[in-house]
């Protein structure tokens, strides 16, 4: 299988280094220099990972990240000149999977791209396995005033459709399938394609905070020192 990696960066040196080290039979690199070219390539073909310099001319890099995440489940690696904790947090909150501050070792970037693709593939396999476990009538999980449709990835509260990102949906499915159970952060992290060993607690915290904002906050109970508990009881 060949993965398409879209590199959004004006520095030809970075693209050249990636091209040199990534195996051509496994990775196809596509280089663009601005947001206009990014969306052109993104809309015309399947992209597995976007490597994005956060300081893009003509558009704010974080806004591009937000739009990418809202429109797709593509893997996102952010590159930045800033290395403050708040910058990393904001980048991850916008939907990035990885955040790397310049200067960085090109081999570390390659490893992060490979690991991200590996995590995405695991999630896809897990999703396929979950789908096989559910018959058509078991596609719907109901709890409290909510209905979670597994196949269509939709969450409803009555007639209201609540939009979820890929990471939010993945985490909510795990919670809904294990109600009234304390789940560790590591276990939750293993169920999402946003796994990043450097920011385990922060990543899970951010996703759960989003779910609390979109749903009833009382459903997600923090169990200090252990993890989180989903306080809902599924309806038959």
Write a concise synopsis of the structure shown.
The chain has eight helices and 13 strands. The protein has 236 residues and is of the alpha/beta class. The chain is elongated and about 55 Å long.
Characteristic terms for this protein:
elongated; five-stranded parallel beta sheet; Arc Repressor Mutant, subunit A; 13 strands; Rossmann fold; alpha/beta; five-stranded antiparallel beta sheet; 236 residues; 8 helices
Shape: elongated
Number of domains: 2
- Helix and strand sequence: EHEHEHEHEHEEEEHEHHEEE
Question: What's the rounded overall pLDDT mean?
Answer: 83
Helix-strand category: alpha/beta
Question: How do the strands of the widest beta sheet line up side by side?
Answer: 2-1-3-4-5
Query: Would you state the CATH class of the largest domain?
Result: Alpha Beta
Q: Can you say what the CATH homologous superfamily of the largest domain is?
A: Response regulator
Specify Rg, calculated over alpha carbons.
Answer: 19 Å
């Amino acid at each position: 299988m060949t993965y398409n990696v879209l590199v959004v960066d004006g520095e030809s040196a970075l693209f050249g280094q990636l091209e040199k080290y990534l195996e051509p039979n496994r990775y196809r690199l596509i280089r663009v220099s601005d947001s206009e070219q990014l969306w052109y390539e993104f809309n015309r073909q399947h992209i597995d990972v976007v490597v994005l310099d956060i300081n893009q001319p003509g558009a704010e890099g974080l806004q591009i990240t937000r739009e990418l995440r809202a429109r797709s489940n593509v893997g996102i690696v952010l590159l930045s000149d800033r290395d403050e904790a708040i910058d990393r947090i904001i980048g991850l909150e916008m939907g990035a999977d990885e955040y790397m501050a310049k200067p960085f070792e090109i081999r570390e970037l390659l490893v992060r791209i490979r690991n991200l693709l590996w995590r995405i593939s695991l999630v896809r396999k897990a999703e396929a396995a979950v789908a096989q476990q559910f018959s058509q009538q078991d596609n719907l999980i109901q709890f409290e005033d909510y209905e979670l449709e597994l196949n269509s990835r939709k969450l409803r509260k009555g007639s209201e459709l609540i939009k979820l990102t890929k990471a939010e949906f993945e985490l909510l499915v795990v919670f809904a399938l294990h109600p009234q159970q304390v789940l560790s952060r590591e276990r939750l992290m293993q169920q999402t394609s946003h796994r990043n060993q450097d920011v385990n607690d922060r990543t899970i915290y951010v996703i759960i905070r989003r779910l609390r904002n979109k749903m009833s906050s009382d459903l997600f109970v923090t169990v200090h020192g252990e993890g989180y508990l989903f306080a809902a009881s599924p309806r038959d």
